[in-house]
Amino acid sequence: MRLAELTQELKSNTYPGRGIVIGRSADGTKAVTAYFIMGRSENSRNRVFVTEGDGIRTQAFDPSRLQDPSLIIYAPVRKLGNDLIVTNGDQTDTIYDGLAGGQSFEEALATRTFEPDAPNYTPRISGILHIENGQFSYKLSILKSHRGNPDCCDRFTFSYDAPLAGEGSFIHTYQGDGSPLPSFEGEPTPVTIEGDPDTFGNAVWNSLNEDNKVSLFVRFTDIRTGESETRIYNKNV
Q1: What is the C-alpha separation between 190 and 170, in angstroms, rounded?
Q2: Rounded Cα gap, residues 170 and 45, in angstroms
Q3: Which domains does the chain have, with CATH numbers?
Q4: pLDDT tens-digit profile of 162-198?
Q5: How far apart are CA 140 and CA 176, in angstroms?
Q6: What is the DSSP string of the chain?
Q7: Spatial separation of the C-alpha atoms in residues 147 and 200, rounded to whole Å
Q8: What span, in angstroms and rounded, lies between the C-alpha atoms of 57 and 170?
Q9: Which strands form 47-52's sheet, in the order they lie side by side?
Q10: Is pLDDT above 90 for 88?
Q11: CA Rg value for the chain
């Protein structure tokens, strides 16, 4: 599969939905992750990312306009030891609790399926970064309905044990806009990772559809020291 320009992938899709990017910085020293959310409804767009501990949480920008909080209020990013968990739903907590209890990433996710938001049946996408002793690896997962049929859940896990400098993987919930929304298909897209946290974050944020983008989280973690830099972008300010 070709190595795609991340910004072009984003610009070419008006509604990828929620997306995860994980990879290695161009200089090879940083583990990079990004998570963004988009929205079409007023309820989905009425959100911001806020810092919570070592991670983030979604929060209503205007609490008086919050309707149904299920599926839109959750902790997308949490840290447990040497692992950073990033997901598009409350399965973040499922993975966190599973790892704390001795389960693997896959075992924890085996207890979950796609979101119960018929007729879209939004996929649950999840990622985990492991950094230890100067080494970095990551996994991505997608749980999706079987070609739109909720009677069957398709489960895919993709593992990357030696990420290359300047490269990453991009997975998102939807192929594009539609009714119902078409679920992501295939492997995560190999994409370029360029620049420092600000350059990378600004490029991603500016490439997301202006009408539909809501929030973006970016973190660069030094693979040797574990020190990290985080950037948060919110359309609602």
Answers
A1: 6
A2: 22
A3: 6-234 (3.60.20.20)
A4: 999 999 999 999 999 999 999 999 999 999 999 999 9
A5: 20
A6: ---B-HHHHHHT-S---SEEEEEE-TTSSEEEEEEEEE-SSHHHHSEEEEEETTEEEEEESSGGG----TTTSS--EEEETTEEEEESSTHHHHHHHHHHTT--HHHHHTT--S---TTT-PPEEEEEEEEETTEEEEEEEEEEEETTEEEEEEEEEEEESSPPBTEEEEEESBSSS-SSPPBP-SSPEEEE--S-HHHHHHHHHHHS-TTTEEEEEEEEEETTT--EEEEEEES--
A7: 34
A8: 21
A9: 47-52, 55-60, 77-80, 83-87, 124-132, 135-146, 149-160
A10: yes
A11: 16
179 close to 168: Cβ distance less than 8 angstroms: no
Mean pLDDT over all residues of the chain?
97
Position 136 pLDDT exceeds 90: yes
Give CA angle at 111 (105, 114), nearest 5°.
Answer: 95
The letter for the amino acid at 76 is P
Pick the closest to residue 23 from 153, 154, 168 (CA basis). 168
Q: Is the pLDDT of residue 42 over 90?
A: yes
| 147 contact partners, CB below 8 Å, separation of at least 6 | none
- pLDDT tens digit sequence for 60-78: 999 999 999 999 999 999 9
Sign, CA dihedral 204-206-209-212, equals positive
Which residue has 């044990």 as its token pair? 161
Rounded Cα gap, residues 40 and 36, in angstroms? 14
Spatial separation of the C-alpha atoms in residues 144 and 78, rounded to whole Å: 23
pTM of this prediction exceeds 0.85: yes
Residues 218, 28 contacting (CB under 8 angstroms): no
**Rounded average pLDDT over 85-92:** 98
Could you identify the residue written with the tokens 């049929």? 149
